[in-house]
From TrEMBL:
Protein name listed in UniProt: AhpC/TSA family protein
Lineage top rank: taxon: Bacteria
GO terms for cellular component: cell envelope
SUPFAM superfamilies: Thioredoxin-like
Upper classification of the organism: Bacteria, Pseudomonadati, Bacteroidota, Sphingobacteriia, Sphingobacteriales
Cell location: Cell envelope
One GO molecular-function entry: antioxidant activity
Thioredoxin domain location: 237-377
Signal peptide region: 1-18
Keyword entries, A-Z: Cytochrome c-type biogenesis, Disulfide bond, Redox-active center, Signal
Organism this protein belongs to: Pedobacter psychroterrae
Any GO BP: cytochrome complex assembly
Length: 377
């Protein structure tokens, strides 16, 4: 059920970038005054902004500069309790900051705000409505699963049934998102919609035609250009493609190249010492490695450990008994190889044949041993 939970929480839009522009956000939520406050949180480049405004008869105003349309969180603290005390029950809404005047009004809660003067926020409101039903259903599935007896939660058939229900909801949502893109080819929101459909198992045959139908003004933004690179990375790491070459330093700071593994079956394993699911999977990798290491198979670990955390990486290698070669540049998800392979979450792995071709992805547990047995026994 881990994938169900992540998907339920993962319908989060991405930031959109363009040229610097000034914005003014004016809102009216109810009639409250001091100590009620409004908080606006957003990011410009590497800087995170946390702006605060006091409500006067429900009215507040923010001004600032962003690099084109940018997602922000707008929080209304009705009782002036302080942002840190609001928790999950906070009255919060997403707003896209863009050049010009943005206005919103709501009778009681910013979650129900109506936007005027901002086409992109009007489009975004339509887009959010598409995902609201799906998100609620996913939350219900998660709650139903967690409330089931442990004996049922551990039953494989029950897990598959719940996953199938979640997958069917997402399938419908993805269709609705693509319909939105078709109707709004000039909207930044359409790029956000497509971004939610690009992951490790993206169907390029579906996504690429929709991306190509976006207007040039959207595709040529920095975010649109990056999206195109993501598509290309996905294409380059699809089953049947030749695995992209890379070179990265090992634990002794000596360069290791994927080219050196030509002629062997090699599993490129993306993991990190801080990643619980990765560490839980490591015993399966150790078992498969020991079973097939003398049959032209090996593993090449690529760690997404964080800057300054080499000791943690080394300790995890020793504790988990990972005797194969490990490489990392200690850049977290900015790891050069991870970016090259479009890694958005871990654990992830790719099985490469002796010619360098990708023949399988994300083999877990006994699946890896079964695949290797079919190839090498």
């Amino acid at each position: 059920m881990r994938r169900v939970i992540l998907l339920a929480l993962g319908l989060i839009p991405m930031q959109l970038l363009a040229q610097n522009s000034n914005f003014t956000l004016t809102g009216k939520v109810g009639q409250g005054g001091a100590p009620a406050k409004a908080y606006l949180q957003y990011q410009v480049g590497n800087q995170i902004w946390n702006d605060t405004a006091t409500l006067v008869k429900g009215i507040f105003k923010f001004k600032g500069e962003v690099q084109g349309p940018t997602i922000a969180n707008l929080v209304i603290d009705h009782k002036g309790e302080g942002l840190a005390k609001l928790g999950a029950a906070a009255d919060v809404a997403a707003v896209i900051l863009e050049q010009g005047q943005i206005s919103l009004t709501a009778k009681d809660s910013v979650k129900n705000a109506v936007f005027t003067g901002s086409k992109v926020n009007e489009e975004y409101a339509l887009y959010q409505a598409l995902g609201r039903t799906a998100t609620n259903k996913m939350v219900d599935i998660k709650a139903e699963y967690l409330s089931a007896p442990e004996s049922r939660r551990s039953d494989k058939k029950y897990q598959e049934h719940m996953q199938a229900r979640a997958d069917s909801i997402l399938a419908i949502l993805f269709i609705e998102q693509r319909e939105f893109v078709k109707k709004h080819p000039n909207s930044y929101v359409s790029l956000m919609a497509l971004s939610e459909q690009v992951g490790q198992n993206v169907d390029l045959a579906i996504v690429v035609p929709f991306f190509e139908k976006l207007s040039a003004s959207v595709r040529n933004t920095p975010e649109g250009i990056q999206f195109g690179k993501t598509i290309e990375a996905t294409r380059n790491t699809s089953i049947g493609a030749i695995a992209p070459f890379f070179t990265q330093n090992d634990v002794n700071d000596k360069p290791v190249s994927l080219k050196d593994y030509r002629g062997k079956y090699v599993l490129i394993d993306f993991w990190a010492s801080w990643c619980g699911p990765c560490r839980a999977e490591n015993p399966n990798l150790v078992k498969a490695y020991n079973q097939f290491k003398d049959k032209n198979f090996t593993v090449l670990g690529v760690s997404l450990d964080m800057p300054g955390k080499k000791d943690d990486w080394m300790a995890a290698i020793k504790k988990d008994g990972l005797v194969w070669t490990q490489v990392s540049d200690l850049k977290f998800f900015e790891n050069d190889v991870a970016r090259q392979y479009n890694i958005k979450s871990i654990p992830q792995n790719y099985l490469i044949d002796p010619s360098g071709k990708i023949i399988a992805k994300n083999l877990r547990g006994e699946e890896l041993s079964k695949k290797l047995a079919a190839l090498l026994n």
